[in-house]
From TrEMBL:
Gene Ontology molecular function: symporter activity
Tagged with keyword Transmembrane: yes
Superkingdom of the organism of origin: Eukaryota
Record-given protein name: Sugar/Na+ simporter
Family: Belongs to the major facilitator superfamily.
Keywords: Membrane, Transmembrane, Transmembrane helix
Bias type Basic and acidic residues, positions: 483-506
Organism: Neocallimastix californiae
Residue stretches spanning the membrane: 94-112, 119-143, 163-185, 192-210, 222-241, 248-272, 337-358, 392-415, 427-447
One BP annotation, GO: carbohydrate transport
Amino acid sequence: MEENKEQRGFYKLSWLQRIGYASGDLAQNFIYQTISQYILIFYTDVYLLGGDPSKTAGLASTMLFVVRFIDLIWDPIVGALVDKKNPRWGKYRSYLIFGGLPLSIFSILCFYDGFKPSILYAYITYIGLSMLYTLVNVPYGALNSSLTRDTDEVTILTTTRMFFANIGGFCVGAGVPIIVALFAGKKVPYELVFFQGIGSLPSFIFLPLIPVIKSKVGKKNMFYLFITIAIFGMAMLYVVSRYDINKYIVLIYIAQFIKGTGLTVAGGYAWVLVPEVISYGEYKTGRRISGIVNSLTGIFYRAGVVIGGLVPGKVLDWTNYKAPDEEETNLPNDSRAWFWTIFIYSVVGFFLLVFCFIESKERVVMKDKEEKNVKFSDLWVEFIRNRPLRVVALYFITSFTLGNINSASGAYLMNNLEAQSSSAQEGIRWLVSVIPAALLILEMIIISRYELTDEKIDEINMAIENNEHIKPESDITEIEVEDPNKIEKEKEKDINTEKNKKEKDISDIEANDDDTIDVKVDK
């Protein structure tokens, strides 16, 4: 029975395969988390974008908005490309190599200050980095749904992926300040290291328990529970940070841990919904266009990144944030130290992508006939007819807006907050606590509209494998648009054929009767 299910796409994966796939997310987070957490503070405090310390935040915010808006256009192009092409090394995993090497190179160039404080150089390198990240991330996301249809296996695979993604977040959040300080020959900013590290710590505790928690309380209730925990942590962080941070540093760490516990599920677990809406779309249309759906989720993700990238810089600009001098900052401004730190993360990231490429085996992919039928317009069509996908769209936009605001602002809170004006301090508190909490409440409302339970997804996947799902719309359309005159002509032709057949039968009978009479006469 188990072998039968595997033949129909319900594959069980080994732990080496799960870890191999998850290593791709670890690799991408070495780059993505570096950008999310430190690119803004690098441009404002180290690169001094534009040259004027009082204007760097506004310039950096505008640049992040423009570059990430370009990604909104680039994402669907990559999705359509991935679904139409079938490279020799694998439909999805090939891009881990083709895009992975230049991605690592551009991530290093982004933190090179040889052209400081050139705005043009910053735009070129950051645009290149973002486009290459999309070229790797979209097919990597589609690779998830091509490994197996089994919902329990998908949950374990996604949980493993999230676990490794959070390892990447921890290594970047806590590791970058340490390595930068060591390269710069400065004192390690342990307050920032602990703050960033504690925010990632809950993922190592709670992520392995997610399958158990979900089985006990259900998918939706699990979201509600962890979102509420995150809001409580943010409220606590806002209140405590209004007082002397150094004096109440333990309470700051506790609040950060509580917030991180909630965000473990509120943000990262959203990715498990993507294979579900892919299966739902296949059930409704007969076509498994994983690349299209992943490029759509990429658009939603990018929309959140666009908004989340714009908000921190603008809030800092509006509240009169000023780049601190070297002696005022806890995080070293040594540009060479930043360059070599990012070099290490990028090289390690590329080799992890190679490992992911080796261990990921594609098994559930669209057929060649379906590949040829993929059109760019399928993006809009899929969005309109796939109701759960629209809910996921809103959730992704909200979640990644929150995630980017939260990631970018943490370093500012712990980087000698007292050196800033009172208005800038309040702006940083809003970025760390108030705005993310409001977005979490919105997330809770959105997820309440999601209709695909685990039981329903299992039924859908089983129907697909048993060929009981809805007939492809292309076949239905051919019947619906058939020429009525042609149908009438066919009917008339059938009637005439039947009439001719009857006349022939009568003639044959008469001929046989004549033969019989002749025989009798002869006798």
